[in-house]
Amino acid sequence: MGYQKKYLPLLLSIAIVAGIFLGSKLNFNDATEKIFATNSKKDKLNRLIDYIDYEYVDAVNTDSIVDVTVNGILENLDPHSVYIPIDQYEDNADEMRGNFVGIGISFYPYKDSIAVIRAIEDGPAAKAGIKGGDRILYADGKKMFGEDFSQDSITAYLKGEINSKVKLKVYREGEDELLDITVKRNEVPLISVDATYKLNEDIGYIKLNRFSETSYDEFKNALDEVLDEGATKIVLDLRGNPGGYIDVAERIADEFLSKDKLILLTRNKNGDEEQTISTKRGDFEEGRLYVLIDENSASASEIVAGALQDNDRGTIIGRRSFGKGLVQREMSLGDGSAIRLTIARYYTPTGRSIQRPYGNGNADYYSDYENRYRNGELISEDSIQVADSLKYVTPGGKVVYGGGGITPDIFVPKDTSVANETLQYVSRSNFMSYFIFEYLEKNRSQFEAMNLTSFYNDYKVPSTLSEEFITYARLNNAQIDLSAYKADLDQIIKANIAQQVYGPNAFEFILNKNDTMLNKILELETPKQ
Hints:
Keywords: Hydrolase, Membrane, Protease, Serine protease, Transmembrane, Transmembrane helix
Shape: globular
Transmembrane segments: 7-24
Domain PDZ: 83-159
Structural class: alpha+beta
Number of domains: 3
Largest sheet: 6 strands, antiparallel
């Protein structure tokens, strides 16, 4: 396999973390007069844009020049100060609100129509009777099929004002006529908690994928659920979590800390500081706690891990985290666009900054992942580079380090073999999802009569299905040969079927069966003979 294929999962991960930010609700005071005072440098930039607009020999889209200019300015500040253009703002806002107003379906633009993968449980579409496999052909009389329809237009038609109604015409296999289904739009959650279940009789497992406005409530419900089911120990999985709002991270950390513990310190360029102190409201302040992190756990994930580690609370397991210790605030530019500007640094309770250097530019900054891969850090704890000058000691006497991420208490190496990297990529790939959708198109009725428990226990992936996927993957653009990994592939196929039929919790439950970090926890929890 060539270099590009070998490192494809790595490059995808880099692209994911490139978009992270840490939402700030800090109260540092800004002098408005100072910010917006007349300034010759600002006048110079405005005058240049005006000259180009009115005098340049050719017609020029000055909006695009402004976008390029803003991006160029921010790129010279730090890697996490970013510009959000008008056409991307609403999607970004939805992501961080943790919901949007729509009908609540996941779908594919499949062949020449919209194919429903799954109606979100308890969402507007599910309540109205939309099912997986349905084709939405018309929305309020507007045609939603054919070669000229686009995903953007689909989203525009299906989103709308809360409590507004959309009249759909739906094709369903087995029905002689199109179905008329009216759906009342409502808030649809963008789920933050991917999975909540018990690893065994004692250990509850919660996987969190972001820190949006709704994430704390989702997390709290998940924590209550596993505690009500008798869990006395908790695993919080923050692997691959790129971050989000600072106050959400603080509230989640507070659930695990006793009263009057420092959670976070932030400091702006004027030296103004804000501290966040834990309250007595935590629901899990004493039980055994494990937090899973990896090289893609960033910003708010690192706040949680750092607060717990520095307060000698729980055990951090995995690999060194991303290393982002900067705080952003979103600021409107007045035309529907916005910037997220770095306004402060944050420090963990022992006083360490975990922000890694970015003075050599964004390209160098985001190649750090590949550098870790090459220098062996992902497979050997001894290869993690730490500086004695950035050594700190927790109240319990544990040595921790600043200067580039949270170093775990217990290191678990990454399987960097081509086989594992390939299977990891395939397990969550679009072409696997597409293949499974096509399989369900022909076999959906088989699963409608099967509940989740019987699926877990009794369903076996047909050998013909995995063989079909091996051929499909080999012929697909990915051109991957998976013939040597049939047993692993069966598990991945079963997980992807579960995701489309039963939801993300079932998907994570099945994929986690052979997870090395979770197996490490079970090993630690097994009494020594």
